[in-house]
C-alpha cells in the first residue's frame, strides 16, 4: 500500500462527481456575496457578527440547492442545522473558518460524529497496528476560509478547501484548495461508481448546530 495523501484524494474522486464539486464552489461564492450585501450597511459594532450569521444561512441555502441540482442525497434545510450530503461512501458538510481558526471545527457535535467514519482512512497515511482495514466510509468538509476582517474581502472566501479530518477531529488527513483538487479529475482514470447508499437523515436531524 502507498501511504500518501494522494490516495485519499483518489478515493474522493472515485465517489464524488466533479459537477458536484463545481456546483458547491459556485454556491459558496453566491451565498457569501448575498450575506455581504445583506449586512454591508449595518453598524460596524455588530456587523461582523451579523455577517457570520448571514453567511451560515445564505451559504447553507445555496449549498443545499447545489446538492439538489447534482442529484446528491442530503439532509434538507432545517433551522440552524448543518446540511449533510452523501455521494458514494462519503458524507460531507460545509463550514466557514477564518485564517487563524482551522481547529474550531471540533466544536460541532455533528462534525465530530461524522469524522469518526475516517478511522480506517488513517491507514493511508500511516500503517495500522491492527493490520489493513477495508475503507468503506469517509467524511470530508468543504471549508470556506474567510479573512476574518471586514476590511479585506468580506464578500467572498479567500479560498475554498476540500478537507478530510482525522477520526477525532484533532487534525487533518488531507487538505487542498478546491480549485487545485478539481484539476485532479482531469488526471484521474475514468471510473463508474454505481453505489448509492442512502443517508440516514433521522440520525443527523436529531442534532442541531450552528456554523457562523
Helix-strand makeup class: alpha+beta
Alpha-carbon Rg, integer: 17 Å
Number of helices: 6
Q: pLDDT average, as an integer? A: 85
Number of strands: 6
In the predicted model, the low-confidence regions spanning at least 5 consecutive residues are: 192-212
Specify the biggest β-sheet: 6 strands, mixed
The helical percent reads: 25-40%
Give the topology string: H per helix, E per strand. HHHEEEHEEEHH
Q: Strand content of the residues, in percent?
A: 15-25%
Kindly, what is the distance between the CA atoms of the first and last residues, rounded to a whole number of angstroms? 39 Å
Q: Kindly report the spatial arrangement of strands forming the biggest sheet.
A: 1-2-3-4-5-6
Shape: globular
SSE topology sketch:
Blueprint: H1 5-15, H2 18-39, H3 44-69, E1 73-74, E2 85-87, E3 90-98, H4 109-115, E4 138-146, E5 159-165, E6 172-177, H5 178-187, H6 201-204
Parallel strand pairs: 3-4
Antiparallel strand pairs: 1-2, 2-3, 4-5, 5-6
Helix pairs in contact: 2-3
Output the keywords.
single chain; 212 residues; alpha+beta; six-stranded mixed sheet; 6 strands
Amino acid at each position: 500500500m502507498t501511504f500518501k495523501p494522494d490516495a485519499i484524494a483518489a478515493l474522493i474522486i472515485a465517489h464524488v462527481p466533479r459537477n458536484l464539486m463545481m456546483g458547491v464552489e459556485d454556491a459558496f461564492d453566491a451565498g457569501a456575496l448575498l450575506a455581504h450585501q445583506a449586512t454591508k450597511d449595518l453598524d460596524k459594532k455588530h456587523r461582523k457578527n451579523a455577517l457570520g450569521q448571514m453567511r451560515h444561512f445564505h451559504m447553507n441555502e445555496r449549498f443545499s440547492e447545489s446538492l439538489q441540482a447534482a442529484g446528491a442525497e442530503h439532509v434538507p434545510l432545517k433551522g440552524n442545522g448543518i446540511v449533510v450530503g452523501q455521494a458514494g461512501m462519503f458524507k460531507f458538510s460545509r463550514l466557514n473558518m477564518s485564517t487563524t481558526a482551522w481547529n474550531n471545527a471540533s466544536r460541532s457535535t455533528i462534525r465530530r460524529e461524522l469524522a469518526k467514519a475516517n478511522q480506517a482512512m488513517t491507514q493511508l497515511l500511516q500503517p495500522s497496528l491492527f493490520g489493513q482495514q477495508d475503507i468503506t466510509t469517509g467524511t470530508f468538509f468543504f471549508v470556506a476560509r474567510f479573512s476574518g476582517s471586514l476590511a479585506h474581502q468580506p464578500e467572498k472566501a479567500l479560498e475554498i478547501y476540500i478537507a478530510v479530518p482525522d477520526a477525532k477531529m484533532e487534525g487533518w488527513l488531507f487538505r487542498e484548495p478546491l480549485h487545485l483538487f478539481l484539476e485532479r479529475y482531469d488526471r484521474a482514470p475514468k471510473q463508474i461508481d454505481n453505489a448509492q447508499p442512502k443517508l440516514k437523515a433521522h440520525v443527523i436531524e436529531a442534532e442541531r448546530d450552528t456554523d457562523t
